[in-house]
């Protein structure tokens, strides 16, 4: 018992040392929204319901921040509607991933970062800015506002797919290099990791992801996208360029859009210096209540 207690104390000291820029989850959310509202003229749009308004939208639950904006991606917004005026938007979307293309149920309980219910922070551009501005803002927010060290971040990009005649996203790779990211921290991946779509059909496109390295000794590259708790994906910047009609049939969208998703739970844990989302104020009150009730 004494050894266990000593181990817990050492772990707490390490976490406290790492957590010089730790924030409560409400401040993580607030800083994200204020950054895009105040510094980059984004309109705040509240989270939509986790229950889709219309049947046949491809999912039983709202499984991503993009769901409520699908008409904008497809150019199907009625003229004169409120959504028709959206150009730059920021929000925090409540999501449920049980079933469908992005089912997280099988991962819950097996790692420290997947949940069936979670909150996705997102910034959006509908035919306005695109890749360069999106990458620049993401890097600035993470390093200048949240104070994450650049050397702990890894950046992935889409390496292309011959079956769909999709070229590598060299533009995203080049942007990260021009923003000062070393080539060793920029990694190519395929359709599974770096091409995003909501479901089997609908808006989709290549993405560039940002991963955080908890180890920080320069060896994190080999753990990116390896389901390791040592290197965790925190932000996905999706560049909506296509509409998928069938598995092998993509048609370019009339306009290019930006759809990003930053996991509130994951970033809160990272800023606390913890590998576990459960070690945050988003979960600890629930566990304390369970302990009190169950003795």
From TrEMBL:
* GO MF, one annotated term: aminoacyl-tRNA deacylase activity
* The enzyme's E.C. designation: 6.1.1.7
**InterPro entries for this protein:** aa-tRNA-synth_II/BPL/LPL, Ala-tRNA-lgiase_IIc, Ala-tRNA-synth_IIc_core, Ala-tRNA-synth_IIc_N, Ala-tRNA_ligase
Catalytic activity of the protein: tRNA(Ala) + L-alanine + ATP = L-alanyl-tRNA(Ala) + AMP + diphosphate
Can you tell me where the transmembrane regions are? none
Q: Name one Pfam family in it.
A: tRNA-synt_2c
May I have one GO cellular component term?
mitochondrion
The UniProt entry's GO biological process terms, in alphabetical order, are:
alanyl-tRNA aminoacylation
**Residue ranges of every copy of the Alanyl-transfer RNA synthetases family profile domain listed in the record:** 23-295
User: By its UniProt entry, which Gene3D superfamilies does this protein fall under?
Assistant: Bira Bifunctional Protein, Domain 2
Record key words, sorted: Aminoacyl-tRNA synthetase, ATP-binding, Ligase, Metal-binding, Nucleotide-binding, Protein biosynthesis, RNA-binding, tRNA-binding, Zinc
Task: Return the broad EC class.
Answer: ligase
The family note in this entry says: Belongs to the class-II aminoacyl-tRNA synthetase family.
The name under which this protein is listed is alanine--tRNA ligase
From which organism does this entry originate? Lottia gigantea
Traced from the root, the source organism's taxonomic lineage reads:
Eukaryota, Metazoa, Spiralia, Lophotrochozoa, Mollusca
